[in-house]
Design brief:
- There is one protein chain.
- The chain has 6 helices and 10 strands.
- By secondary structure, it is an alpha+beta fold.
- Strands 1, 2, 3, 4, 5, 6, 7, 8, 9 and 10 form a 10-stranded mixed beta sheet that branches.
- The relative contact order is 0.17.
Length: about 250
Amino acid sequence: MSIELVYEDDWLVAVNKEPGLLVHRSWLDRHETRFAMQLTRDAVGCHVFPVHRLDRPTSGLLLFAKNAEVARTLTEAFGERRVNKTYLALVRGYLEGEGRLDYALSRELDDIADKFADTDKPAQDAITRWQGLDRVELPVAVSKQHATSRYSLVQLSPETGRKHQLRRHMAHLRHPIVGDTSHGDGRHNRFFREAYQCDRLMLHAARLSLSHPVTGESLTLSAPVDAHWHRLAEAFGWHRALASAMADGVE
């Protein structure tokens, strides 16, 4: 088993995490044997330190540091919102134009990990910028209310890093991400599984832009999308929009 490296220097390594892969070992899933952290360590031949997180079902760019000091610097940069994060998502409905959602989120607790957590804490500020990239209308009645079904390719840029923020914010906008089994629409998830053999969360961490923690130079890292994305782009005519988003981003 291996992992795709997308960047490496003396201090950093970035990988393209596949959907379903845990970042590191967790007692919440004691039966799992593959982890991004261990696979990255094996690929580069040294210990690596995680500096941010990706949800298990989310694919894409995951950054590690090669020593503890660099890891602290990067963790601070993420915490102080000095790292620009760009995601791609496929959502239900037409989401056109662009906007900025400032919608606080209550803490989302795990039954086991957060068994003794304080459930009375106030909601945390959460901000997401979004931009519609392309759209499609299919002649399929996934829901009984509509004769056709609409979907959008969108770019998401979280300004904060709350748990499941993008998934919860898209659900709040009534444009849930396809494949989201926690906050999404089961009818549309089922349609994509059956019609396109797509059984994953369609959320991809495409890009990180930051100052290099050692050299100070501007650094932009990106991770290519997988076969599910390319298959859907082929079916929906989204080749140009997807290629443009991956190549240059959308300002």
